Amino acid sequence: MRKKEGIVYSTDLNFDNNIEEEDEYQYDDFILSVCFEKKGRAGKGVTIIKGFLGKANTLNELGKELKTSLGVGGSIKNNEIIIQGRIQEPIIIILNKKGYKTKKVGG
Q1: How far apart are CA 85 and CA 72, in angstroms?
Q2: Residues 6+ apart with CB under 8 A from 88
Q3: How far apart are CA 1 and CA 56, in angstroms?
Q4: What integer pLDDT is reported at residue 54 of this predicted model?
Q5: Would residue 14 be called left, alpha or beta, if left means φ above 0 and alpha means ψ between -120 and 50 degrees?
Q6: DSSP string, 7-60
Q7: Of 23-27, 56-60, 101-105, minimum mean pLDDT range
């Protein structure tokens, strides 16, 4: 990813110095793997979404949207979205509607 470098000064009072950079990756540049793993508290399973390329903010927003729409808990760690429960199919449906390429891994 590109880093912002340098300092920008402007005499324009309406100048916005907080210019957001766009993600370098598009939704169809990568494939998200949606897999089920038996890990977590008391051996309960979790669905893990791996392979996301892009900004951390975008990943956090996607994780929050998935958790909210499915009504489940989860977290984002090590560039992966971890969702409680075995719910691969609903997650794949939501991601495909948003334009992401997905692949179901395992059971």
Answers
A1: 8
A2: 34, 35, 36, 47, 104, 107
A3: 11
A4: 87
A5: alpha
A6: ----S-TT----PPPPPSS-GGGSEEEEEEEE-SGGG-EEEEEE---S-HHHHH
A7: 23-27
Q: Which of 41, 29, 99 is nearest to 75 (CA)?
A: 41
What pTM, to 2 d.p., does this model score?
A: 0.72
Taking the C-alpha atoms of residue 80 and residue 56, their distance in angstroms, rounded to an integer, is 10
Token readout for 98 is: 């948003």
> In Å, what is the CA distance from 74 to each residue of 19, 79, 80, 88?
31, 13, 11, 14
Token reading at 53:
């390329």
User: Domains in the chain, start-ordered, CATH in brackets?
Assistant: 27-105 (3.30.780.10)
**Tokens of residue 104, six digits:** 């179901």
pLDDT tens readout for residues 58-75 = 999 999 999 999 999 999
Q: Does residue 79 surpass a pLDDT of 60? A: yes
